[in-house]
Amino acid sequence: MTPASSPGQGPRPRRDGRARAVIDEAVRRARHRLGRLSLRTRVGLLVAVGVGLAIALTSVAAFATVSSQLHRQRDEALLTRARVAAAGPLGNPEVIARIPPGAFGAVDIRVGLLQADGSGLRAPNTESPPSGSAELAVARGQLPEAVFTGRVDGKTFRVVAVPTGEGSALVVAQSTDEIERTLDRLGIVLLLVGLLGVAVAATAGVAIARAGLRPVRRLTLAAETVATTQRLDPIEVRGSDEIARLTAAFNAMLGALAASRDRQRALVADAGHELRTPLTSLRTNLDLLAQSDREGGLSVVDRSELLGDVRAQVAELSDLVGDLVELAREHPPVPVTERVDLAPVVARAVERVQRRAPEVRFDVVSRPWSLAGDSAALERAVTNLLDNAAKWSPPGGTVTVSLGDGILQVRDQGPGIDEADLPHVFDRFYRSREARALPGSGLGLAIVQNAVERHGGTVTASAAADGGTVMTVRLPRSSPDLGPVSASSQA
After folding, report:
1. Are residues 120 and 102 in contact, defined by beta-carbon separation less than 8 angstroms?
2. pTM of the model as a whole
3. Which tens digits make up the pLDDT trace of 190-226?
4. What is the CATH number of domain 242-328?
5. Which CATH number is correct for 89-175, 3.10.450, 3.30.450, 3.40.630, 2.40.128?
6. Using CA atoms, how far apart are residues 402 and 346, in angstroms rounded to an integer?
7. Domain residue spans in the chain?
8. For residue range 84-104, what is the model confidence (pLDDT) as tens digits?
9. CATH fold match for the domains 242-328 and 338-489
10. Architecture of domain 338-489 in this structure
């Protein structure tokens, strides 16, 4: 059998757990209901609660202060009157039997003379004051004075006792009803004023919240309009406060979104235009191949040439798609960053391009230059620069490559770039009139610029003094103690 729990200990944890669960559920529901309220309503409630607490504390302090002052003043006045009376003829039993209570200047007052043996006299036409041990101690000389509260006949009195001589004390009692009625009226006034203050504060809080949140509401409506209509129109900025700064930041975000969307549209339009040519040529060749097969087929030489054209077009299409995928990424893939010496990168790129363009000679002069970055991206950028130079150089021409102090220059002996084309050579799909007759998609130099800027550098194009074009890449050096850097620092 399970041992019985001791009385008062067994069921208590279960009741405590149930009570805690009930409290947690009530708090959860209160938070849920509060969360469903609008911000304006919550601000109004917060202001009302704050003002209500302030008014409550002020009212309690005022009531306590007034009550203390009234009781203290009454006690002092009652003691003063009792002392004056005790020092006069009222200390005589024969005189007190004839003195009217109105002589004390107060209504509902009771006066009596208490002897040390407990016997006493009271003023005529009045009731006896409340009795107790304190005034008897004053009559016996054990206390100099006594002030206390007593009840008699269902009424509350404030009682003072002062000595009148040997073996007697003058006892004066006054009802507290007048002060209590005054305090009751004061409490009602404070309560009404507090409720009125809370109501005014709640109304003012809602009004202030409505006025203060009007710019936020306008910004919210604008955001909802953007989400609904997809229109990225900027919002009017009013003032110079935090809301105005938020609006300006929101406008900057809209501008960035609009620019990104424009770039995407341009990329799609340009990609569609560039893809149309190789796809059309590829489809034409395949249709020709199929038609020839139906009519008896082509000769071995013609079929081989046609298949070679198809392979070249597929390779061109693959390169174009790869370049489009590379440039279409708003956030480039996170590369494996490492310390890279640019001189070997340039050497590998020259070797690769030399195999593709054996009729062009490459004159390379390079010195070591280290930086933290993506070796593959840098090699592709240098390869594209060399491919571009080899494409424009005449047969037997020389491409001069120099690397030193973080500056890579590639100079060809081609016809050069027209002055009007220089600002656009790194734009996506841009091709000059002369370049349209040559193979390419117009994406190679755009990829170069993208890779160089990701590494914190710059690339420019200029005309050489003796003809041709000079492509200049400037890349920052890594500090000796710098380890691999993150891609975000290069973006």
Report:
1. no
2. 0.44
3. 889 888 888 888 888 778 777 777 777 888 888 888 8
4. 1.10.287
5. 3.30.450
6. 9
7. 27-87+179-231, 89-175, 242-328, 338-489
8. 777 766 555 555 555 555 555
9. no
10. 2-Layer Sandwich (3.30)
Question: Along the chain (491 residues), what's the average pLDDT of each consecutive run of 10 residues?
Answer: 47 62 72 66 79 86 90 87 73 56 58 76 66 80 85 83 81 85 90 86 80 79 82 78 82 85 73 69 81 75 80 74 66 62 91 87 90 84 88 88 91 81 72 50 76 87 84 78 37 28
271: number of CA atoms within 13 Å, CB side?
18
